[in-house]
Structure prediction request, 661 residues.
Amino acid sequence: MPIPPLPRTVLHTRAGLERAESALVEEYGGLVRLAYLTLPPSLSRHRRVLLAHSLVQRSLPGSRGRSAPRVPAPRGRKTGKAQPAVAEKNRLRSRVVRSALAHARPPRGWPRRLPPPRTLLPALPVVWGLRLFPRAGGADEIALGQALAGTTAAARTAFVLREVDGLPDASIEALLRTAGVADPASALRSATRLQETVGTAARTLLASREFDACSVQTRPTDLLRRRRRVHLLWAALTAVVITAVLLAFSWTTSRPSGPRGDVPAGLPRPADLVRTPADAWSRTARIDFTAWPARGDRTHDADLLTRALSAWTRPSRGRYDTTDGTPTDPPPRTPQLLYAGDVDGTAVVLLHDGGRVVRYSEPLEAPGDGTLVLARADDADVTTAAAVLVARGKKGVRYLLAPWVAEAGTRDLLDPDSPARPLDVARDGITGPVPAPTGGAACDHRPVVQLRSSARIAEKHAFLLTDLGELSPVHLTYTPLPGHGSPPARQPREATGATALLAWAHLACGLEDLRGSGVRAVNTWDFAEQDLPEGGGHAVWSCTRATTWRGPGDVGLFLRTPADSPAAPAEPVGRARGTAACSRFGRHVVADTRWRARTGHWYLLAAGSRAVTRIDVGGDVTARANGRTLAVRAAREARTRVSARLDTGASLKPVGDGAGR
Prediction:
C-alpha cells in the first residue's frame, strides 16, 4: 500500500527533522548502497559513489530549502529511542529511490545523444585529487555486477529492496509507483528473473564490499597534471601569460578533432595495456580471448590506442553501440590489447577486459572520429573466441582469427553438398572478405565460415561460425536423432558432418531473424522422426535453440518433410522465448502440428523426445499412442490439446505456440 506522507507542518518542525535525521544516520549505509546500485552503471564508480552519498544526504525534509544546509552534518546515533520510526525510514527510502531514478531521466525535449543535465552539474560532496571506488569483490560479485548492469534501474531497485531490505512485493510496488516508475510490476518480474539467475547467495553478495559505497578505496588523480595546473595558475598572474593562454586556448578549440586523445586520470593508458606473448595459447589450458596475442602493425601507436581508451572510458563523447545486455561502464581492470592496425581504410583497435570485447574504429582520413562497439565475451571458449569481426564493407565482412586456428574456409549452408572453399588469411590473422547473406524472400545464399583448430588444441576439430551483425560470429552446432550416432547424442556436436549440413540447409534462412539479438550459439536438435500417413514419406522433428550471451534462449520447432530441394525451408510448428527448452536444462520436448496429405486429408501430427513414452490428444479429437509419435485424422480447424507422458511418469506439454493447438 502507498506510504502516507506526513503533514508539512510536522515535517518542518524541529522534532520532525530530528526524527528524520536519526533515521538517516541509522540507515545511512543501506540507503547509500540502494542509491549506488540504482544509479546508471554507465557512470564511473567514482561518480556513482559521490552521487549516492549526495542523494542520501539531500533526502532529509527541507534539505533543499534555504533554511537547511545542502549537506547536513550527521549528529550521531540518538539515545532516546532504540530504533527510529519505520514510517520515517520508508519515507527516506522513497526519497532516495525517487532521486536516484530521476537522476538519469532527461527532461522532455532534451536531445537523446546528450547526457541528462543532472549528470553535468557538480553536486556535494566533491572530492578533489582523489578517485573513490568500492573495494573489489570476487568472481561472483563481478558476475552480479554485470547482471545488474544489464537490467533497468527500477529492476535493480526492486532487487535490492527485496533481497537486502526484505520488503514484500506490495511495498516495493507502492514505493516504485511513488517514485514515478510507470510499470512497477515489470520491474518486479525483472528482479525475480535476476534473483533466479543469481540464486540464494544474492543477499550475501549484495552485502559484500563490492557494492558498499561507504567502504571505499582511494587513488590519486594525475599528480603531474595537477602540478602543471598549479604552475599555469601562477603564470596566469601576468598579462603576457594570460594573453598567450587565451590565444592557445582559442586555437586549440577551433581545431577539429586531432590525432591525440586524452584518457581520464586513474584509468589505463596505452603503456599499461596487457600484451599476451604470441605462443601463450599453445602452453595454456585456458583457450579463450586471454590467450590472444597483440597483433597488427599499430600496436605501439600511442595516439591511436589513447583515442580508443578515451572512447571507452567516456562513451558519451562519441558514437557507440552495444550488443543486447552488454554493460557500457569503463573497464574494471587494465584491458588486454588484441589488435591494432588498418583494415580496408579504417584504423581498428580490439580490446578485452575479461568479460567484454571492444572494437574502436575510425577512418584513416579523420582520426578521432571513431565508433565504439562493445560485446559480451564472458565464458568464451575455443569456438566462441575463435574470431572477431573487424570490418564490414561492400565486399563482405573480415574477421580476426584466433592464433589457434590452423585452417579457414567458407561454405554455403544452402548448398550442403558443396565442399568448403579456402579463405585467405593474412599473417596478422585478418581474413579476406566473406560475402554477406541474402535475406528476405530472396534467401538463396547463406555463407558461413568453417574453421579448423590446431592439432595442439584438438584432433580434426572443425566448426562453423556465421555473421549475425555483431562483433562475435555465432557458433552453429547440431545434435542428431537419438540412436543415430555413437555414443548417444546428448550434447551438441559441430555442424560439419553431412547430416548436420543437410539439416541446417532447411533452417539456414531463419538465421536472419536472430540478427542483432546478442546470440552466442545456435543448435539444431533433431529430437524425433516419423513416417507420415498415406505414404507421405519420412519426416524429422527438430528444435533450434538460439542461446544468448546473457543466458536465456529462444527456440523454434520445425518439421522437415520430404522435399524436392535439399534447401527447402522447414515448416515452423512452434516458438518459445526466454526458455530452457532444448538445452541441457530442458531435455524433454513434445510438439504438434497439422499436416495435409496428398489426398487432401488433414492430420494432427505429434512427436516427443527420447524420454516420451505416450502421447495423448484431447478436445474435438481424442486419441492416444504409445511411443514417441502420433498421427490421427483431424480437421484443420479442430481444437485439440496435446500432452505427453515421460518415462518418469511426469506429464509434458508442447513447447511454444504450436499450430496444432
